[in-house]
From TrEMBL:
<keyword id="KW-0813">Transport</keyword>
<feature type="transmembrane region" description="Helical">
    <location>
        <begin position="287"/>
        <end position="305"/>
    </location>
</feature>
<dbReference type="GO" id="GO:0005886">
    <property type="term" value="C:plasma membrane"/>
</dbReference>
<protein>
    <submittedName>
        <fullName>Lysophospholipid transporter LplT</fullName>
    </submittedName>
</protein>
<keyword id="KW-1003">Cell membrane</keyword>
<feature type="transmembrane region" description="Helical">
    <location>
        <begin position="167"/>
        <end position="186"/>
    </location>
</feature>
<feature type="transmembrane region" description="Helical">
    <location>
        <begin position="92"/>
        <end position="119"/>
    </location>
</feature>
<keyword id="KW-0812">Transmembrane</keyword>
<feature type="transmembrane region" description="Helical">
    <location>
        <begin position="224"/>
        <end position="247"/>
    </location>
</feature>
<feature type="transmembrane region" description="Helical">
    <location>
        <begin position="20"/>
        <end position="43"/>
    </location>
</feature>
<feature type="transmembrane region" description="Helical">
    <location>
        <begin position="55"/>
        <end position="72"/>
    </location>
</feature>
<dbReference type="Pfam" id="PF07690">
    <property type="entry name" value="MFS_1"/>
</dbReference>
<keyword id="KW-0472">Membrane</keyword>
<feature type="transmembrane region" description="Helical">
    <location>
        <begin position="259"/>
        <end position="280"/>
    </location>
</feature>
<feature type="transmembrane region" description="Helical">
    <location>
        <begin position="373"/>
        <end position="395"/>
    </location>
</feature>
<keyword id="KW-1133">Transmembrane helix</keyword>
<feature type="transmembrane region" description="Helical">
    <location>
        <begin position="344"/>
        <end position="367"/>
    </location>
</feature>
Length: 400
């Protein structure tokens, strides 16, 4: 396919290239979220202990951290659409391995490696297909596609796992196959920063130099801290719901936690849309009150024992989350593209986010293994998150 890089940044928000990216992201994220709940059902069927459930996600997250020094350069050294295709193919292989009875932790880690390579390319390509304040809107589209995939993928994973684990795993494999096909429709843009060395030590040095550049800049440090806290909390909440639903609501199926996660997804779509309309790159600080309120909402959720208020509180949590994280992502992409390259910026972001996930999941797993009640974990988790975002907001205002 011809190089379209010269005109790509002038395309409209709804160009063929952008729609191909959004479609590929939808099916890839659908597979990710369905596979998580299906693999959790596999662990339950094989009688793994409760504390091993977050360990599954930790294996996924560890792949992000181990490959963080390399995936940003890969995204910036090749056409990002082709990088996305290769990453989705690796996810397809990992899901297939679980489907055919291989160790679920190893299969899910392979999916994590694919996701680690996929993330810098999928976000980095947005800055190549559109520019300026349209980048916030493009992020809104990306987040809306992702959350719709979380909504449908989570529900499909939970419902199908209650019916047939084999069929559920087959749906995950099919979703990744469609994502690979969608990647073929993305224009082959010129590599953003070709010609770098591929020696692992030199790549690692370049990555950590990019880390230093972004963490020294006040705006990108603010974005990195905010998104790391958000996604660390988000993945922990997902596992907390799996434990909290039977303890607080008395429901033991696989589907109900996925429905509750789906209500979060619906809320994030709404919040992401509101952020695209109400927040620009110059007014990113408007998102901070929403971050504080996320923790408050989670604390109120933890003490509920009825389904309707639980769904409403989780939808509210999602709305606040979408409004909080979309502007922070756009800020990092804009500043990162101008300094270390969009792919490297997202790789640095992934390192921060996944380090936060690993830490929070580790603490959560230890709390569960120590016998802490799900309600108490939820209240403490919500309070700590609200305090952390409030401290970040205060620091941001002091540094003006």
């Amino acid at each position: 396919m011809a190089d379209t890089s010269a005109s790509a940044s002038g395309q409209t928000l709804y160009s063929r290239g952008m729609m191909a990216v959004i479609a590929a992201q939808f099916f890839s994220a659908f597979g990710d979220n369905a596979l998580l709940f299906v693999t959790l059902a596999v662990l339950k069927a094989r009688f793994y202990p409760d504390w091993s459930q977050p360990v599954l996600q930790m294996a996924f997250v560890a792949a992000y951290i181990l490959f963080a020094p390399f995936v940003g350069q890969v995204a910036d050294s090749f056409a990002k659409g082709r990088v996305m295709m290769g990453a989705n193919a690796l996810k397809l292989f990992g899901a297939g391995a679980i489907c055919f009875g291989f160790n679920p932790f190893i299969g899910y880690m392979l999916v994590g490696i694919g996701a680690a390579a996929y993330s810098p390319a999928k976000y980095g390509i947005l800055g190549e297909l559109t520019t300026g304040d349209r980048l916030v809107k493009a992020n809104g589209l990306m987040e809306s596609s992702t959350i719709a995939a979380i909504l449908l993928g989570s529900m499909a994973g939970g419902v199908l796992a209650d019916w047939s684990l084999t069929a559920a795993l087959g749906v995950c494999v099919l979703a990744y196959a469609i994502a690979v096909a969608a990647n073929l429709l993305i224009p082959r843009l010129a590599a953003a920063r070709p010609g770098h060395t591929w020696h692992p030590a030199a790549m690692a040095r370049g990555f950590f130099a990019a880390c230093a550049t972004l963490w020294r800049d006040g705006e990108t440090r603010f974005s990195l801290l905010g998104t790391s806290l958000f996604w660390g909390a988000g993945v922990t909440l997902r596992f907390l719901l799996v434990l909290w639903v039977p303890a607080a609501l008395g429901i033991t199926d696989n589907a109900t936690p996925t429905y509750l996660n789906a209500s979060v997804a619906v809320g994030i779509v709404v919040g992401a849309g509101a952020a695209a309309k109400l927040v620009t790159l110059k007014t990113v600080a408007r998102c901070m009150p929403a971050g504080v309120l996320i923790g408050v909402a989670v604390g109120f959720l933890a003490v509920q024992n009825a389904q309707l208020p639980s769904y409403l509180l989780l939808a509210l949590t999602g709305m606040l989350g979408g409004f909080f994280v979309v502007p922070l992502n756009a800020l990092l992409q804009d500043r990162g593209k101008k300094t270390v390259g969009a792919g490297n910026a997202i790789a640095v972001q992934n390192l921060g986010e996944n380090a936060a996930m690993l830490l929070m999941l580790g603490l959560y797993s230890l709390a569960v293994k120590a016998g802490a009640p799900a309600v108490g974990i939820g209240v403490g988790f919500g309070a700590l998150f609200a305090l952390a975002i409030a401290a970040l907001w205060y620091w941001k205002r002091r540094c003006r």
